[in-house]
Specification:
The chain has 223 residues and is of the alpha/beta class. The protein has 9 helices and 8 strands. The radius of gyration is 16 Å and the shape is globular.
Length: 223
């Protein structure tokens, strides 16, 4: 599966968000990662569907994956699908009825994603992997950008890759948290194919060089 670089707009300059999104896409990013926090499920507050709708109206037509760190979550799924989300990814802890919530995402027309926090076991995949288009492994605890990578996430990634391969399904395996040029090779070698990077991209002066460096590190580790 083609590696995707997915800048997280959580680290972008929100005073010129449209320009920032265009800049990373022009620099070689594949998708845009859209972090939604509610100051309830996670200890931070970010953005809602109107921001995504505004980006779509401004002509941003790239794939957007929306990571909902909110509880309860069902209410917002339709709003983000209508606003233009291509993928909607939720945490199992955010709903009382996971199968129903994942089915709701599919019914909304978006692709279905499930997120695993550092302490959330992968065993739940036995029940729902047939519903998924994306699995996201958090390599930090959710809620803040700029955190350090949790190394045990590499083992979790490798296990998730084994489960995906055994399922025979075309499921993307995403990593989010502390991904940088100096560790993305290890992450790719462990099985990830979709790489969220916020500060590692938006915190640099040359987005194109940074994204190229990330791609080179992935290529070196997987060829």
């Amino acid at each position: 599966m083609e590696p995707w670089i997915s800048p997280s707009i959580l680290a972008a300059d929100f005073s010129r968000l449209g320009d920032e999104v265009r800049a990373v896409l022009s620099a070689g990013a594949n998708t845009i990662h859209f972090d939604v926090m509610d100051n309830h499920y996670v200890p931070n507050l970010s953005i809602g569907p109107l921001v995504l709708e505004s980006l779509r109206k401004a002509g941003i037509d790239a794939v957007v994956d929306v990571h909902l760190m909110v509880k309860p979550v069902d209410r917002l799924i339709g709003d983000f699908a209508t606003a233009g989300a291509d993928y909607i990814t939720i945490h199992p802890e955010s709903t009382e009825h996971l199968h129903r919530t994942l089915s709701l995402i599919a019914e909304s027309g978006a692709k279905v994603g499930l997120v695993f926090n550092p302490a959330t076991p992968l065993s739940i995949l036995e029940e729902v992997i047939h519903l998924l288009d994306l699995i996201l492994i958090m390599s930090v605890n959710p809620g803040f950008g700029g955190q350090s990578f949790i190394n045990s996430s590499l083992d979790k990634l490798a296990h998730a890759r084994e489960l995906i391969d055994a399922s025979g399904r075309n499921i993307r395996l995403q990593i989010d948290g502390g991904v940088k040029v100096n560790n993305i090779g290890q992450v790719a070698a462990a099985g990830a194919d979709t790489f969220v990077a916020g500060t590692a991209i938006f915190g640099t002066d040359d987005y194109a060089k940074t994204i190229a460096d990330l791609r080179n590190a992935i290529s070196s580790a997987t060829t």
